[in-house]
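Is pyridoxal-5'-phosphate placement plausible here? Inputs below.
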Amino acid sequence: MKYYSTNHKAPLATLREAVERGLAPDRGLYMPERIEKLPQDFYDNIQNMSFQELSLQVAQAFFGEDVPMPDLKKIVYDTLSFDYPVKQVKSNVYSLELFHGPTMAFKDVGARFMARMLSYFRQQEGAKGLVNVLVATSGDTGGAVANGFLGVEGVRVFVLYPKDKVSKIQESQFTTLGHNITALEVDGVFDDCQRLVKSAFVDSELREAITLSSANSINVARFLPQAFYYFNAYAQLKRLGVDKNIVVCVPSGNFGNITSALFARRMGLPISRLIAANNANDIFYQYLQTGKYNPRPSIQTLANAMDVGDPSNFARILDLYQVQWEDIRHDISGAVVNDATILRTIRECWQQNGYLLDPHGACGYQALISGLEEGETGVFCETAHPAKFKETVEKATGSDVKIPERLAAFMNKEKQSIPMTTDFADFKRFLLSQA
Ligand SMILES: *Cc1c(COP(=O)(O)O)cnc(C)c1O
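Reply from A.M.:
I modeled the complex. Tokens:
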């Protein structure tokens, strides 16, 4: 299958090219040429399939022409070695817990899948040497990418992060791994990290000497596999006998997760409608109200992974709907949840249902219950473990949050990082010394 750019100026790309490039040369996002409906018997039997089995069928619809079955099966099965349960919170409201991967954030699946696919294509090409993945992080992405690529053959990852500006838990998730993961502690802010990475990609001397790649969240191999979550959620709801009139609510930042749900729906997954939950960064909500898209600088909120002022996957949503605002509004409604409401929601949901939300899940839960109608079954994504936002959650509920073993394990290991200045010449010298 070929991939086209949402800007329609770049030539069609193969899957391999789309994965290796991330962004299309015309700066658009890659889209698969076709979105195939899965056969009815798949949906009739989905409740009898494991997460890995059903995901393989979904993966085959996108990648089956380009990756032979045994290889695709290995990529999918290796990626999905964790369970993502749907839990009932109250009568017709369910939480889809997407935080059960290695770093306890939902980005784990995309990062793991992309790492394996990149490694597969490198092997196919008989490529010599290592591919160097550069990633700048303000916190969560670094952990998901580092753990996703950990131990994957032929790939080395350099995580650049701002010294003293990420939480201890976040820092431990990419500084304690060793092996093919190197953390660079930059004496600056996130923007400096991002500038260093961008400069590296346009430096011709560097590009001659070493192979560079990015694990950007817009990469098709990071974004499409998130659709697996929704098929798996449907299978679970079907087992529970509550698979009619399903409404899915996704707490959104760059809108990759909700776009993958829209893809699932195009493939025939019976989701009747979606809700996009925004925090105070309500650019998409305003678009739904007015038809006008006005990106603006992001503002800081308690649900910081959703602090995005110009969501990158908006281009994919427009493309899916051929820029028909009415059609987008028909399928997706919006909601805005501010910080005060996030805190109140965490407290009330804990008191009323005994279910502990993180600030992102709180946006999803609140947007869902205020929009859910009689006869509908609502599912919201709980995208991070509440312990990752311990202070906020404790402030909201007044009780202690226990750090789960999987997170604590990172913090007990020794930090290994290399100090780095904000000067590109230093970073370049370092990378060249690694060749
Ligand atoms: C990345 C992230 C989001 C937003 O997801 P998008 O795909 O960017 O819309 C929401 N919650 C958490 C915890 C995240 O890490």
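Short version: The chain has a mean pLDDT of 95.
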